[in-house]
Amino acid sequence: PEVPYCNYKLVTNELEIHSLTAELESLKNPQGLGLSSHLDGLREENAKLKYRLNVLKRSLQEERSQCSKTMMNINQRLQEIFGEAIREACPDLENPPLAVTPNQQAKFGDYQCNSAMAMAQMMKSKGLKVNPREIAENIQKNIPDNELIEKTEIAGPGFINVHLKRSFVSKLLTNLLLNGVQPPPLESKKKVVVDFSSPNIAKEMHVGHLRSTIIGDSMCRLFEFLGYDVLRLNHVGDWGTQFGMLIAHLQDKFPNYLTVSPPIGDLQAFYKESKKRFDEEEDFKKRAYQCVVKLQSKDPAFIKGWNLICDVSRNEFQKVYNCLDIQIIERGESFYQEKMTAVVKEFEAKGLVEMDEGRKIVFAPGQQIPLTVVKSDGGYTYDTSDLAALRHRLFDEKADIIIYVTDSGQGTHFQVVFAAAQMIGWYDPNVTRVEHAGFGVVLGEDKKKFKTRSGDTVRLMDLLDEGLKRSMEKLKEKDRDKVLSTEDLTKAQRSVAFGCIKYADLSHNRINDYVFSFDKMLDDRGNTAAYLLYAFTRIRSIARLANIDEAALRKAAETTEVLLEHDKEWKLGKCLLRFPEILQKILDDLLLHTLCDYLYELATTFTEFYDSCYCIEKDRKTGEVVKVNMWRMLLCDATAAIMAKGFDILGINPVSRM
Predict the structure, then answer these.
(1) Helices 166-179 & 550-559, crossing angle to 10 degrees?
(2) Which of the chain's ends, N or C, has fewer CB atoms near its CB within 10 Å?
(3) What are the annotated GO cellular component locations (predicted)?
(4) Closest residue by Cα to residue 600 from 507, 486, 500, 537
């Protein structure tokens, strides 16, 4: 009953606001109204209407925030408020800059609007010399009535410092406790395709695939949490000339492969053997080419051989995905084979294809390198299959957002593919977001490319097994094996091992290369998963040690006001409510280390709070709990809720006992 009533109130209030606004407009242009006699009366009426309009607007904002179960993005709300004030203060300035950021130092307030300086620069370029401080004062005067701001102050050359209302922040925290961590409302549910992981059949997954898998999965989790419709695609390399030599080798080694499933245990070795023969034996090389032709003409015996090889690889990949808890749909290069001819014809029909020494190439505007859509031997290339994949995602999947998560080395290639797709009119970049999210290389501790001692690429499963081994050593070093059951110990081992590997990757800016070091990632000091997982378990145990169960916390959230009188309570409360703005930033730039930095800041802010503010007071002699400060227990609960959701987006699985 409460929500329909709120909705009814919202609608009636909004209608009244519309009619009042219309009335105000008509009063601004009083045509033919015996002006002088009416003017005073009108001015008075105008003032009354403005007052009523503001009262209504404020009650509308308050009802909105109370009806809504979702978390408010405070930064965005402040931008709306300051946007309105700036438009009122400088109506003639086109697209004035809007800059609102959290304040780094508490003494200057909670947020800061820094638009006045940039606006002064804009005016100066138009020949108007205005002091930025004057602009700031003008903005300050025009701040509309709102539910959020307690007061504003102007500092320095024109910074506007914003102090938030503690009572309102407290309400937002209660909302978070009662409804859980809910994402801000979406304007429209968009379809997102994320292309990530993408290993090659018959080759081992290596650390480059590890980065793509971890980063891509976390991006998908973020979009899913925010309410988008997400398709996770694995664009595996499952087609091409290498399959000719693999099938030829399969025929020689397991001649009865059509009836008896061949025991290919080590596909890597199998690949190396066939490659050696391909390079050294002329007859074998000829047969390999014939096998490619047979495969491409869909000969059933060859398709069966191809499927067998793909399945061996899939099983290997799946072991990695199971460890890292990755959900992904395979849609390899073979899926687009049939679609490539049509793509080439479409480019030809629009006169966009040129001949170059027997090759068919496409030049996209602004790009130095052409795409080769057909080779001189009539075969297709990566360029052709990537165009076909992009076309399918745009037209068949009807994606609004498409993200490719591969190493930065492929950046130029995708830039050309995207430019060609725009040239032929497949999508408008202002409407559809198509983006390459590149990442740097994984380095060893010697700062060189990550290799084994013998110089081979590191097998991913070996790396994950090593992580499990190191994580168990770390837990035993802390005597956890003496207090945890075998089952809890194994859970903690997997949580720490895979959590640390993921976090070490995600906590670095993906654009940079990063150094892989088990010692660093398993260290429980500093910005690591080990530290955060321990901190989380500790926060979760506070209520348990005070014998407060979920039901008691739930009841407290309904009846207890979250007090924010102590500086450290206030700092923690504000930090918790920054979560939606952190997610919005990542949505814009796809840089996940921002979330890691935020979780680390939250954990350290919590520690400051816990050290300064007693949540539970115990008798010094008996150790019995004599007093529980329930509003502080609620702050602990809110911190755990936000951390848990942050872990979930990063793909990290915390445990209740560690």
Answers:
(1) 140
(2) N
(3) aminoacyl-tRNA synthetase multienzyme complex; cytosol
(4) 507
401-404/616-618 β-pairing: unpaired
Contact 527, 594 (CB under 8 A): no
Determine the pLDDT at residue 254: 92
Exposed, middle or buried, 559 (CB in 10 Å: 0-12/13-18/19+)?
A: exposed
The most distant pair of C-alpha atoms in the chain lies apart, rounded to whole Å, by 107
Q: If we measure between CA atoms, which residue out of 558, 517, 556, 543 comes closest to residue 625?
A: 543
Q: Which of 183, 79, 501 is nearest to 320 (CA)?
A: 501
Task: Quote the CA–CA distance of 499 and 413 in Å, as a whole number.
Answer: 32
- Go through 410-427 and write b for each residue having 16 or more CB atoms within 10 A of its CB, e for each that does not: eeebbebbbbbbbbbebb
What letter would DSSP give residue 568?
H
Scanning 254-396, the segments in alpha helix (DSSP H) are 267-280, 282-296, 300-324, 337-349, 382-395
Q: Where are the extended beta strands (E) located within 424-529?
A: 433-436, 442-443, 514-515
How is residue 192 annotated by DSSP? E
**Strand order across the 191-195 sheet:** 329-330, 229-234, 191-195, 401-404, 433-436
Strands (E), 205-276: 229-234
Residues in the chain: 658
Is 203 strand, coil or helix?
Answer: coil
Helices (H) and strands (E) in the chain, counts: 24, 16
* Phi, psi (degrees; rounded to nearest 5) at 150: -80, -50
Instruction: Tell me what pLDDT residue 209 has.
Output: 94
Structure confidence at residue 459 (pLDDT): 86
Q: Which of 77, 49, 75, 48 lies closest to 62 in space, CA to CA?
A: 77
- Give the residue from 340, 410, 338, 418 showing the smallest Cα distance to 375: 340
Q: Are 38 and 46 in contact (CB under 8 A)?
A: no
d(CA 396, CA 339): 12
pLDDT, tens digit, for every residue of 357-374? 999 999 999 999 999 999
- Of 362, 351, 367, the closest CA to residue 386 belongs to 362
Mean pLDDT of 232-257: 93
Q: Return d(Cα 387, Cα 597) in angstroms, integer.
A: 37
pLDDT score, position 144: 94
In order of 194, 212, 216, 231, 390, the CA distances from 403 in angstroms are 5, 12, 9, 11, 10
DSSP string, 395-428: HTS--SEEEE--BGGGHHHHHHHHHHHHHTTS--
- The closest of 158, 147, 177, 33 to 86, measured between CA atoms, is 158
Neighbours of 656 (CB within 10 A): 12
Is the sign of the CA dihedral 72, 73, 74, 76 positive or negative? negative
Cα(88)–Cα(193) distance, rounded to whole angstroms?
41
pLDDT at 322: 96
d(CA 476, CA 472): 6
Radius of gyration of the chain (CA): 31
- How do beta strands 191-195 and 616-618 pair? unpaired
Backbone angles phi, psi at 34, to 5 degrees: 10, 75
- φ, ψ of residue 373 to 5 degrees: the values are -95, -25
Strands (E), 92-148: 100-102, 111-113
Q: What is the rounded average pLDDT of the residues 632-639?
A: 98
First-to-last CA distance in the chain? 44
